[in-house]
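Give me C-alpha cells for this 151-residue protein.
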Amino acid sequence: MSNSLKEQLIGAWKLVSYEERPVDGSPSFYPMSEHPMGIIMYTPDGFMSAQLMHPDRNPFASGDWFDGTDNEYKEEASSYIAYSGPFHVDEQNGTLTHSMFVSLFPNWTGQTQPRTVKVEGDYLHLGSASPLMSGGKKVNSFLTWKRASSV
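Here you go.
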C-alpha cells in the first residue's frame, strides 16, 4: 500500500528548476536563473516553508540589513521568494494548497494558493494551479524539487 500524498510530501526538498510559462505563448523564463537555489519543507503537523533565490545575489555594501540602497532593496525583493504557513492535502482529489501566514511578497500574506502536485520517486513537481502575474506577464509556474538527503 502506498503512502498518502501528505506522507510523501513530509520532509525537505531542494529546488532543481523553476520555470515560468507565459499564457500568451511567449518564451518561458527563469526568474531565479536556470540554476536556482531553494528549499521547501513540509512538516507532519501541517506546516510548510518555501525559500527560493537567485544564486548570484549581491551583498549589501553597508553590511547592514536595514541600511540598503533603494537598488539593493529592489534586487533583494526581486531575487528571493519566501513564504510559510499551513498546507492542506485533499487526498481524494490529489490536490495541495499552500496558505501564506507570512510572505516576503506582502500581497501573498493571508492568501491560500492551490498547487498542482506530483511526486515521482525522489522528485516533487509543483505548479501554479491557475495563472499569476510575474514580470509583467500572466504565467503558470513549474517547479521541480529533489528530496534533500541528510548530510
